[in-house]
Amino acid sequence: xxxxxxxxxxxxxxxxxxxxxxxxxxxxxxxxxxxxxxxxxxxxxxxxxxxxxxxxx
Length: 57
Fold this sequence. Notes:
The protein has 2 helices and no strands. The protein has helices at 2-20, 25-49. Helix 1 (2-20) runs antiparallel to helix 2 (25-49). The radius of gyration is 16 Å and the shape is rod-shaped. The mean pLDDT is 82.
C-alpha cells in the first residue's frame, strides 16, 4: 500500500512541476504515465488479493 501512495505522490509532484515550469511539459507526461501505471498495479494487486481461500481442516 505504501508503494501505491508513494507512486501517486510522485505522479502529482511531477505533474505540478511539469505545469508550473515553462519548457518541462514532458514531466507532466511522465507524471501521467506513472499515475496510469500505478492504477494498473493497484487494480491487479487488489483483484488478485481478494481470492484467498482458507483450507478447511
